[in-house]
Amino acid sequence: MKLRVLVGCEYSGVVRNAFRKFGHDAFSCDLLPSDDNSPYHIQGDVLEVLAREDFDIGIFHPPCTYMCNSGVSWLYKGVDENGNRIKNEPRWQKLRESTEFFIRLWGCNIPHVAIENPIMHGTAKAMLSGLEPSVIVQPWMFGHKEKKATCLWLKNLPLLQPTTDLKEETDALPKKVQQRLHYLPPSKDRWKLRSTTYQGIADAMATQWIPFVSAQVERRRACSK
User: Are the C-beta atoms of residues 4 and 59 closer than 8 Å to each other?
Assistant: First the structure.
């Protein structure tokens, strides 16, 4: 049985290809063109794709700039004469738009959903009505000697199980090697490199979630007969 998989907000094709190599109909979707010029990439608004097509699994990587911990300091731009913090209103608007987009992806009509994002600051969490991640994973759990905490919000999907334990080896490396992406020098592609899913994590998603979702789809089809 072929599953239909939508990988939203992905231009690298890493997760899409992890599912396609098992023979499933996986498509990536982003406002940007695909990095690999794949015919299985939909350039456009993921919400519009969700409105017109059906999928069995949705894996989404919404922009994290305004929700992640590193962005919280930009929500205010100093204090007034009374000592009250002055809101950076354009930044707050971007934050509201980001959390609304996240919520729409979470509530989409796909039965099995995963959303990936870094650790969020408290204001973003509050705007998500306390929606907490199901699991936090690290690259060293999936074959990469690096550290980068990644949160996964999962709906009708099992927790992603580690495939390796390279923590000790990773801890022994210099900090700039452990956190390679954090220490990347400025460049026009830095944000792209930092947001690309680790291959080991993408492979784990495919190998662990395909059997689970396939069984669920078969069960639903049997019950509908």
Answer: no
